[in-house]
Design goal:
The chain is of the alpha/beta class and 106 residues long. A hairpin with an 8-residue loop joins strand 2 and strand 3. The termini are far apart.
């Protein structure tokens, strides 16, 4: 399990380094990531000059625990992050919420 975690950490570091290299100052980077790895993500972003600016937790249903997050970072920005309202995928009947339906509409 330790080897797998090290591999994931190396992949994240490589992804973030590449994103930072490709972005101009003020450029945005967005990622969907597991919530339990938020600390690793923020640490990695700041290590390559990407400042976390927007965070949103993603829930399957309103009462469920968030399993994923959506995080936006900006290259060369000042510190300060806004935490948005939770994003719920499904409503009580199992259908997409109106917000998600709009996102997936053609």
């Amino acid at each position: 399990q330790t080897d797998a975690l090290e591999f994931v950490n190396e992949l994240l570091a490589e992804l973030l380094q590449t994103a930072s290299r490709l972005l101009r100052k003020g450029g945005e980077f967005w990622i969907v990531y597991p919530t339990e790895r938020l600390a690793d993500l923020v640490y990695g972003l700041r290590g390559v000059g990407l400042e976390p600016k927007q965070l949103r937790l993603v829930h399957s249903h309103g009462a469920s625990e968030a399993q994923r997050l959506v995080l936006g970072a900006v290259r060369g920005a000042r510190p300060g992050m806004r935490v948005g309202a939770p994003l719920c995928i499904y409503d009580g009947s199992g259908a997409y919420t109106p917000e998600v339906a709009r996102m997936l509409a053609p």
